């Protein structure tokens, strides 16, 4: 079965969507930590701080990859045009590097 179109070579997994699901889960955890029993306030503050740090790390690891994929997709759709083949190769290299970085947070 062959696919046609400008995005035919693109891998079909939705990795930015996975990051969104993880972010929503962290937000649910944060909201549940903010409400609840007042007796364990120190433990809740520590857990809340760790969760916020995890969310910041999630963005720090995934944002560069998502931006590179966005630039590559816009180029495939001819919304932006690369000035040379070297620029296209540089974007592809950065996608590989940032993808490895994005998976490093696991």
Quick structural overview:
InterPro entries: CCR1-9-like, GPCR_Rhodpsn. Keywords: G-protein coupled receptor, Membrane, Receptor, Transducer, Transmembrane, Transmembrane helix. Helix content is 72%, strand content 0%.
List keywords for this structure.
membrane; 106 residues; disordered N terminus; single chain; C-C chemokine receptor activity; mainly alpha; receptor
Word description of this protein:
The structure is a single chain. The protein has 106 residues and is an all-alpha fold. α1 (15-34) packs antiparallel against α2 (41-76) and α2 packs antiparallel against α3. The two termini are 34 Å apart. It has helices spanning 15-34, 41-76, 85-104. It is elongated. It is built from three helices and no strands. It has one domain.
Please write out the topology.
Layout lengths: L14 H20 L6 H36 L8 H20 L2
Helix pairs in contact: 1-2, 2-3
Query: Approximately how much beta-strand content do the residues carry?
Result: under 5%
Distance between the termini: 34 Å
Topology pattern, helix = H, strand = E: HHH
Please state the overall shape, judged from the principal axes of the Cα atoms. Answer: elongated
- Gyration radius from CA atoms, angstroms: 19 Å
Instruction: Count structural domains.
Output: 1
Which residue ranges are poorly predicted, with pLDDT under 50 across at least 5 consecutive positions? 1-10
The helix content, as a percent range, equals over 70%
**Number of E-state strands:** 0
**Which structural class fits the helix and strand makeup?**
mainly alpha
Main β sheet profile: none
Determine the mean pLDDT: 76
How many helical elements?
Answer: 3
GO molecular function: C-C chemokine binding; C-C chemokine receptor activity
Keywords: G-protein coupled receptor, Membrane, Receptor, Transducer, Transmembrane, Transmembrane helix
Subcellular location: Membrane
